[in-house]
Amino acid sequence: MANERLDIVIFGASGFTGKHAVQVAAQLAKEKQIKFGISGRRKQALEAIRSELAADIENVPIIIADLKDEESLKEMTKQAKVLVNCCGPYRFYGEPVIKACIATRTHQVDVSGEPQFIETVQLKYDKEAREAGIYIISACGFDSIPSELGIIFTQDKFNGEVNTIESYLTTWTTTKVDSARLHYGTYESAVYGIAHHNELHELRSKLYPEKLPPFQPKLKKRGLLHKSISNGWSMPFPGSDRAIALRTQRFFYEKYKQRPVQIGSYVTFNSLFTALTTIIFGVIFAALSKFEFGRNLLLKYPSFFSCGYVSYEGPSKNVMENTHFAMTFKAEGWTEKSAEPTDKHKDPPNKVLITKVTGVDPGYGGTCTMLLLSAMTILKESDKIPENGGVLTPGSAFAKTSLIEELNKKDIKFEVVSSIETK
Q1: What are phi and psi of 213, to 5 degrees?
Q2: Where does the Saccharopine dehydrogenase NADP binding domain lie (predicted)?
Q3: Is 271 left (phi over 0), alpha (psi -120 to 50) or beta?
Q4: What is the pTM of this model?
Q5: List of the chain residues with pLDDT < 70
């Protein structure tokens, strides 16, 4: 990358997530002496963001770029070593940015949790990204950094061979809730993601025409609701964490001949009533999202269909600063590793390891910390990222870097809770 380029350019800096990304970038500029710029299509809005969040940072340029103008995107991306893309839903707005980054040989990270977009980008642009020598890495926010790096942390600490990992997400707020908890943009991405979920089977058959060999014993199937290690009622997590983790595990198997871990991903609620209410609303949400009329209703009345959880304004500062998350991982496997990844163990698993990742403001502040540190890792540790380019998952990209240590410094904590061996 040319020396005159900025380290990072944040595209969509005047949006809800983009503003938080600018705030984190300003902090990193002071701590690590990085140079960053902000970009979008409205100069006045960008000037206001710069005055509010980066007034004490010298030389933060404003770069005007419009998704409808291909040349403006190239002019933007060629000024960055890493482009931080905060413009979603990515299924509508992500691909032109990817093309511009490939054309100008610019790394890109984003916070997409949309499997259809992420896997389409891998299918269509992995070869071009490799040839350009750049990394395209999606899901660098709450979807799916805690999950991806939590699984890798657990594998590293297991001291043996892992067969299965189940993750359990819990969130809670330690103050009076005075606003919604999610911004409309996040909700909109979810609506279209569920609406087009049926695209994934054909997409994955093209992406991975050969199936992995079977591994035993198989991960135990859980019911729609089950009691979990998180002291509550758990159900399958509807986000992209599991899909991304499985791609990472396949990457490790194909590149490093490492036995792939079977993954289960769940979200936990304190009460049975909350869990059942969530299921009911989830069924309604999924049914409506399948039809244009239903999607229009969901998008027109987000607060109603989310029981006040979503709004156009998003969460207040008070709610964000007092919202916490914990992701608990239960790994089962053997104390001894097999010689080959496809070798079958003669005995049942004899070890259980529990780990945990915790943090604050997962949706926005925490997400943007993860996002900007992911960009910083590409800048500082590209020699530890495999393949010298391509479309990678966060886990496959950052497994051998210091990103976990950097997140720990920002109060996104990774820890071992317990380890039990059985004879």
Answers
A1: -65, 155
A2: 8-137
A3: beta
A4: 0.95
A5: 1-3, 423
